[in-house]
Prior knowledge:
- It is a single chain.
- With 122 residues, the protein is mainly alpha-helical.
- It is 69% helix and 3% strand.
- It is built from 4 helices and 2 strands.
- It has a two-stranded antiparallel ribbon with strand order 1-2.
- The relative contact order is 0.18.
Amino acid sequence: MTSPVDPATSAASTSAAGTTITPAVRGALTRYRIIAYIVGVMLLVLLFVAMPLKYLGDNPAAMNVVGPLHGFLYVVYLLGAFDLARRVRWSLGRMILVALAGTIPFLSFYAERKVTHELTQP
């Protein structure tokens, strides 16, 4: 008896946006999702922990660590977003919007969810 082919486990499937989900796209999406969460959390730590400690508590130590770390991770986020955009052939405007999502608190979580839903829903 044969079972129906599961699009999630086949070599390539098609999303609701008409994008073919190849293993390369799936890998780029996974990398993007991971770095989007990390950058989102680091931005929240920067804004709600490090900055208040620096400006309200006169203790710049956390800011001196979290600030540059967030900057470095944002560059990694940009690379991940660019890689995914290139693989799914997004327009320049769409790529810029996703890239800017890493600069506004909580928006990277929303953008990641929206991109994932768009690319994985049949």
